[in-house]
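ok so heres the complex, two chains, lmk if somethin looks off
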Amino acid sequence: MDKLHIPATERSPEVDFDFAAGILRLSGESYPEDASRVFGPIFGALDPFLAGAAGRDIRFDIEMIYFNSSSAKALMNLFQMLDRAAASGVRLVVNWRFAPDDETLREFGEDFSEDLEHLAFNLVAADAAAE
Amino acid sequence: MLARHYRSFKHVLDEEGIIFSFSGYLSESILYSLGEALRQKMTLEETNVTTVKKVFSVFIEQSQNIIRYSADKVTGPDGANIELSSGMVTIGTQDGKFFIVCANMVRQEDVARLRGRLELLKGMGREQIKAYYKEQLREAPDENSRGATIGLIEIARRASEPIEFDFDPVDEHVSFFCLKVSI
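and the predicted structre for the whole thing:
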């Protein structure tokens, strides 16, 4: 698979994974009834990709506006998965992007990054692209 | 009489500082629409971004708890993907703070566990709640709770005062449960 693109819905984020270029992007909102329905396909596509990506540079940009608690758990699982891939040789950089005045998202970024040992996790306070 | 009756009903709501109150069968699409209205209202009033996020987050977690756990649900005929949960969500302002109250029926056998979880959270300080949240974030999902624990911690974490809750027994099967959060 070269690409995975899932458009955003009212309560789920846009997924834009360019596997060929090594640039992955997740953005928007996530508060679906069932977080596994949103994150299941993401994990399903990342797992085989990361297994074959040792030695490659991979950038993962995450720019969420809001997510509920079950999506927060799914994001934590995602970061643990990425950290395991980084431990086995994938050169992974995560950019956690948020609006400069958004304290909630900054704090989430800090919480998520705390136990991650192998990947680079950057907190990026930046003005969001115009919506 | 009709206009007078509903005018006085609205007056009672206004006196309580209520921005909106929803009572009835709640679905995910109603939740989405109410949430959008709430965000627009707060943004128009130039509420601070962090406050908007906190209020919105508590609103979503409380409403999704009603959708998941209300003991008063109607389901569509076999095979139809319809499920509506009855409850009440009220948002307002009081003494310069936002408050969000949710209420729904809970089964008697679930009362003790829910009360225990809420009492635990009520007794915690800000740093303890934050640490508890981080711990639960890393836990595998609890099969029985279907994610309630982290949702309740998220609610307590966004509150600026200790959460308030109460149970009013209705009959041998259900109690009316109420949770108030101030931000």
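quick notes: Chain B has a mean pLDDT of 90. thats all i got rn
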